[in-house]
Amino acid sequence: MMKVLLLAASLWLCSLSIAEAEPCPDLLNYKMTKLRSSEQIDFCQAFQGKVILAVNTASNCGYTPQFKGLEALYQKYKDQGLVVVGFPSNDFNQEFAEAEKTANVCYINYGVTFPMLEKSQVKGAAANGFFQKLSKATGQAPAWNFHKYLIARNGTAVTAFSSEVTPEQLDAKIGALLSEK
Which of 14, 24, 44, 61 is catalytic? Predict the structure, then answer.
């Protein structure tokens, strides 16, 4: 009898945790390979419940120094739930063909520690699926490199920012999103 009661209690507790588990927002149903790696990132597993700053990047752009500010935001807020994700793209003809050169700019020149993904397209019909969803959610596709999308913890509220908006200008907005539960 005791075993039956324990089993019933265990099943009941499991059903509670399953019922309380948040379904992954559609925006995060996406996987992509990391820069210069074979490792894939499952966005639902890695980013669900976090504030996400997604940025299309390029190594040879006048905005490339924004990597410094992006890394500073990541370091400041990563323990509170921020993740910055870089999407190298040659859509504006300012990214290297070789992943090794892109990685050198990110990791060596700017000390980037946030996730950088493999080079992909970020605008138009050939854009990667994540950027297609971001463009649809905001009505804004990247017009240039270092276009930013700030995604709330719920994975549905998305705000777009042009290249001219610096990472430092997003500090207060990120702080506010992180304070929301």
Answer: 61
* Burial bucket for residue 43 (CB in 10 Å: 0-12, 13-18, 19+): buried
Which residue ranges make up each domain of the chain?
A: 23-179
Architecture of domain 23-179: 3-Layer(aba) Sandwich (3.40)
**Catalytic residue flag (residue 61):** yes
pTM for the model stands at 0.88
Mean pLDDT of 26-36: 96
pLDDT for position 1: 57
Q: Of the candidates 173, 165, 146, which has an alpha carbon nearest to the alpha carbon of residue 67?
A: 146
Helix ranges (H only) for the chain are 2-20, 43-47, 66-77, 99-103, 129-138, 171-179
Query: In the chain, how long is the greatest CA-to-CA distance?
Result: 72
| pLDDT for position 6 | 43
Give the SS3 label for residue 159: strand
